[in-house]
């Protein structure tokens, strides 16, 4: 991919004051393939953010390319507004059904709180965190509102392993997609901590969305969730780095002591360091110098951050050669130790999905599981 295209997309992701309008205009003059800008920008979910940046800079963009960028922005703005309206409708419906603890995250909520303009961030789907005990009632609400449960099916015809932490709903008439989650996982079967509503609910705060006050999450756990999500998916989208940078920009007085305390408690210390360093290096996010030095002190963190930065566009989703299996490297030391315990080596549904053995041979899954853990380097 052309370096000019990558540089322009990164300029669109950078926080205010880190790339001035003149620099953006100069980058636009160097771009020869605007089709490539649009293609890669869409892959990284950056077209709405890029359009806003280019429009503000006064850059000279070929008319056809600018029309396509504006069309992408307008489609996204409509998507944001419909997502916001649907989110509010569902939260009211949950409350009427006796579900008091339901909290949205990412998506339009992040656009409104971190970006300051919810239409300038990619809308995505509607994500709502609930309690496991409320799952059946919440699913009933979704079905009543015209949604269909679309979790992938396992070999037995039942919903696959993701049923243990989320329900994926789609509504055919308007294309709305909603995911209900009751468990947040860093590396799926390897991460044994139960990060759910018990962890998140004490960190709620009131936020305003589309003129209505709803429950949201405070900046501390929002930052951890963003770093957790980006790391889990190998930081394959520039959007996820931009999210962390915009959140840091909109919260200059962040209590880093509290953030690091919550990270240690949840086992998210490594992914916090990765996400913050990437936001600093790629998107120019300002970080407390003492915190920055602490995050830069570990060689594995520096190595992973540098690798993502260098291969974000040409080889997204890869990890440095010779690195500890990625899903192990993400874990803090206590969780790595737990990984070696007999509890973590006990076979689960994912191991049984690799090889379908008859019940008399189930003991072989204890041999299959450690091999699968070592070979599976992907976090997805």
TrEMBL record:
One protein family per Pfam: NTP_transf_5
Name this protein carries in UniProt: Nucleotidyltransferase family protein
Organism: Candidatus Sulfuritelmatomonas gaucii
């Amino acid at each position: 991919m052309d370096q000019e295209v990558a540089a322009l997309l990164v300029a669109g992701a950078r926080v205010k004051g880190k790339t001035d309008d003149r620099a953006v205009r100069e980058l636009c003059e160097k771009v020869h393939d605007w089709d490539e800008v649009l293609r890669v920008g869409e892959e990284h979910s950056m077209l709405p953010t890029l359009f806003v940046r280019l429009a503000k800079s006064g850059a000279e963009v070929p008319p056809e390319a600018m029309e396509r960028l504006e069309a992408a922005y307008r489609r996204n703005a409509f998507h944001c507004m419909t997502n916001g309206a649907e989110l509010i409708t569902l939260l009211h419906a949950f409350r009427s059904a006796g579900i008091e603890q339901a909290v949205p995250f990412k998506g339009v909520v992040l656009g409104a709180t971190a970006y300051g303009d919810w239409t300038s961030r990619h809308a995505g789907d509607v994500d709502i965190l609930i309690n496991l005990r409320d799952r059946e009632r919440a699913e009933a609400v979704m079905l009543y509102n015209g949604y269909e449960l679309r979790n992938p099916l396992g070999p037995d015809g039942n919903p696959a392993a993701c049923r243990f932490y989320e329900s994926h709903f789609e509504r055919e008439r308007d294309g709305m997609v909603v995911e209900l989650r009751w468990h947040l996982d860093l590396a799926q079967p390897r991460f044994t901590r139960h990060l759910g509503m018990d962890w998140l609910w004490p960190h709620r705060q009131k936020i305003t969305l589309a003129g209505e006050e709803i429950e949201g999450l405070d900046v501390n756990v929002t930052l951890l969730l963003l770093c957790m999500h980006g790391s889990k998916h190998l930081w394959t989208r520039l959007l996820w780095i931009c999210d962390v940078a915009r959140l840091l920009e909109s919260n200059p007085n962040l209590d880093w002591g509290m953030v690091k305390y919550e990270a240690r408690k949840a086992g998210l210390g490594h992914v916090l360091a990765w996400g913050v360093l990437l936001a600093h290096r790629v998107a120019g996010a300002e970080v407390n110098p003492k915190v920055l030095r602490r995050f830069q002190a570990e060689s594995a963190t520096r190595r992973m951050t540098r690798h993502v930065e260098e291969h974000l566009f040409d080889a997204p989703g890869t990890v440095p050669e010779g690195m500890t299996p990625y899903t192990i490297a993400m874990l803090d030391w206590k969780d790595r130790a737990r990984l070696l315990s007999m509890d973590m080596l006990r076979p689960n549904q994912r191991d049984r999905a690799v090889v379908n053995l008859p019940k008399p041979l189930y003991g072989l899954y204890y041999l299959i599981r450690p091999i699968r853990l070592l070979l599976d380097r992907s976090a997805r």
